[in-house]
């Protein structure tokens, strides 16, 4: 594990911007958290802090006996408690005035829209929960959800949670093999999919992908299909296996009480890329996860009843789980959900949505902000953005230029920006400003959320002094932490808790300034963040070598001005195959099919050999130097230093050096 070379250039750019942004007084006046007292309270006894809010903010069927049982690295939160997330996100609001409040405001890509009040949601969730039961789904069974951004997706999640089934949402941008692997790893009994999903005006044939995937999935008994595209996406329904959502819910019973579940009952599995070729099924459980999602949504987004709150993420990622579905709904908020692409029909679509619904809070990614910068100010300037009062970012470091642009062009200098650091594994935001209490600095995620013990340590696990780079770790358990990797507890221990015993290792590098602010510099392992999406070098390499023409492959994440990082692949062909432009295109397409379009390399480069250490480990650091046009780093440990010179020469010859 090496700290990436990218760190230096990123840090230099971060340091150029030195302005500080205290909470605007008008914002602070009305903020839910106005002072830093909560940090002190949480620090003095973090267990008591979480227990207090678990009790006052959540509904429990039965109160817990003990807030935390910590046998490192195994955590149990709210031991003995009985709770249901679906009840907390839906039912409890239907007995208050919020019954008639909008829970989900959904905008379809073609411009159609639907609004679900909490009462509507209550009805739909119960109907589908009963439909699942009718299909034979029982508590503990896994259900894979493979759809686009349609309202049926959160409804299905809440329906699963209601009966104690474990959901596994697979991003609709993944294709057949990625879906099949994930279904098989979780041994799902039922798959929920959609006829076709809208993307930039065309239809993605989700049901067809699901059909192909399910052919290799022996555990799948039933497939439920949401009708969205209609005749635009004809589907074949297999009798006895496939059912239309609308037909099932039309005959399901309307009443399905939420099942009291153990606080540690598994809520969901969400697959994410790690440092090996096999995606990890991150396991989250019920009580602690809900508390983390609820408290962070409430305080970080300063949720008010009159807000239209919009997180632009896809529910296929953890951001959508925690900040479109569970966090906002548990708070009784109005959560806006958009089906399609940000540039359809035009590049002002997001701002058109802000204008249409008078959105107050917008939570998006640095890549999207940089894309908007590239598109130009005229798009946001066409729209009325005066309803916005708070902005957020997540997924990758935000460069200060993008932060300032977001602040000025979108927030008109009026809206605090919350740069939120967290991971699929952490379940909820861990490092972030509280917008009414914490002064922000462009490029810094600022300070840990109350109760979170984040630290930066060196190779030996010793905390480093201010302004020194190191590894980001978390030194105490937190309620929404992952509980394990599905089916692979050893990997859980190894991956997260072995490098720095007793501490959770994030895989990120970071530095703290003299004010204690965290500056995240990016992954220090073989994980790459492309446009905020998490990809594994080894996963892409394995997909490449599965191609008949490829003998060996190495991928690296290289700097990219818009996407943060892009994939550059170095490919050694099997003899008898010649480098060519069509083959490059074919390989890109191959990855698109094997994993999904988000994993397609930007650059493919053919080389005669790959740089390896004497123990045959590929030296990605050197390939990255080449892909980013740098002078080569230390090559002394290479088994054959000449390889590098050859690769570099031909890379330059192909005109890639300024990539
Ligand atoms: C990785 C986790 C958690 C939401 C979506 C991503 C990077 C995330 C930030 C941020 C700098 C960030 C880290 C982290 N990351 N947020 N605000 N600043 N880096 O979840 O796919 O599990 O990826 O995203 O590298 O480890 P994920």
Poorly predicted ranges: 1-6
Radius of gyration: 24 Å
Helix- and strand-based class? Answer: alpha/beta
- How many strands in all? 30
Major sheet: arrangement of strands: 12-11-8-6-7-14-15-23
Which descriptors would you attach to this protein?
alpha/beta, 659 residues, eight-stranded mixed sheet, 23% strand, disordered N terminus, 21 helices, 33% helix, seven-stranded mixed sheet, globular, binds 5'-O-[(S)-butoxy(hydroxy)phosphoryl]adenosine
How would you describe the overall organization of this protein?
There is one protein chain. This protein is of the alpha/beta class and 659 residues long. It is 33% helix and 23% strand. The strands form eight sheets. Strands 12-11-8-6-7-14-15-23 form an eight-stranded mixed β-sheet, sandwiched between helices. A seven-stranded mixed β-sheet has the order 5-4-17-16-18-19-20, sandwiched between helices. A four-stranded antiparallel β-sheet has the order 21-22-24-25. It is globular and about 75 Å long. The two termini are 25 Å apart. Residues 1-6 have low confidence and may be disordered. Residues 272, 317-319, 394-397, 419-424, 445, 506-508, 520, 522-523, 529, 534 line the site of 5'-O-[(S)-butoxy(hydroxy)phosphoryl]adenosine.
